[in-house]
Amino acid sequence: MEKEPKMDIIKEADEKNDIGGIAVERLRSLVERVEHLEEEKKALSSDIKDIFAEAKSAGFDVKIMREIIRLRRMNAADRDEREYLLDLYKKAIDL
Amino acid sequence: MEKEPKMDIIKEADEKNDIGGIAVERLRSLVERVEHLEEEKKALSSDIKDIFAEAKSAGFDVKIMREIIRLRRMNAADRDEREYLLDLYKKAIDL
Amino acid sequence: MEKEPKMDIIKEADEKNDIGGIAVERLRSLVERVEHLEEEKKALSSDIKDIFAEAKSAGFDVKIMREIIRLRRMNAADRDEREYLLDLYKKAIDL
Amino acid sequence: MEKEPKMDIIKEADEKNDIGGIAVERLRSLVERVEHLEEEKKALSSDIKDIFAEAKSAGFDVKIMREIIRLRRMNAADRDEREYLLDLYKKAIDL
DNA sequence: CTGCCATTTTACCGGC
DNA sequence: GCCGGTAAAATGGCAG
Lengths: 95, 95, 95, 95
Description:
Four copies of one chain form a homotetramer. By secondary structure, chain A is an all-alpha fold. Chain A has helices spanning about 5-15, 25-55, 60-95. Chain A folds into two domains: about 1-60; about 60-95. Helix content of chain A is about 80%, strand content about 0%.
């Protein structure tokens, strides 16, 4: 019997994989995808900041603008909620 | 005489503008740009969430993954901090 | 008929309590405790400000002092982070 | 003449002082005083957090409590402003 | 008075 | 479904 054939098989499987039973490359890929998306989010946040700066220098009250946006978001959420319930009831009626 | 000259003048000024001295259209535009960017951010957050779900069903520990990402982010921040300090010291030496 | 029997009963229930189902005195106590602590915080902030003023008039560069303090705080945070991770890894090994 | 008498004098002055013209010990003292006060602030913040936790488990709405405290703070600020103006006017009248 | 930094507040996400 | 903790947003304060 050769020395550690089982070990070789494992090593084969290990090629870029499975350190301590963990699929390293898979993990790396997932982590990097997340990091990339977070980068994009950060860029968008920066863009938003720029718009508020622009608004400010155009004489708008940024705090109040934020409030408006917040209210519109809440209204939108309410609308969605209402639509969701409407759908739910429609389906219930079909029964 | 043309029809409603005074009205026209006011309307001219009001054309998409100035309700109570506020540039309404400009404001609307700014608000909508922000809202649009926030939508995009939300979509990205959703994508990130999906990746974590994928990771979880591949058997990874999501909490530890988050920890890894956080650490990498901190390391990056440390690097930035070091560069910042370097600049600061350079400036200090000029004194 | 006795004088205001109903009123007395309500007053009994209200004795430092329950306006609209809210334990008023308890709430007041909590709020005042928070306010008191915030006062103390404010006083400390003021003390810190004084020290920086003192430092400035002794010829120190306040901006750089703040930077030093910030760095020392970050180092402390890093240490804590490392300990936290150590614990995390210890727990992970138990799996 | 001994070698570097001037240097010795400087060294005397340097005892725990003046590295690169900076009063090191003085700086250290200032920094540590600030750090100590910041510690105290942090402890107070923690106490406040605890009170809100207590309030929450007593069934109070923490967000609304914060709003109340904020309003009372604003009122207090207004009062202070009024008192300040009152004093100012009193003094003005005395002229 | 503007911009920046610290603190505070809000919103999210995973775990129980 | 709530709770706890963590990350993002927003507000407030300070220096220049």
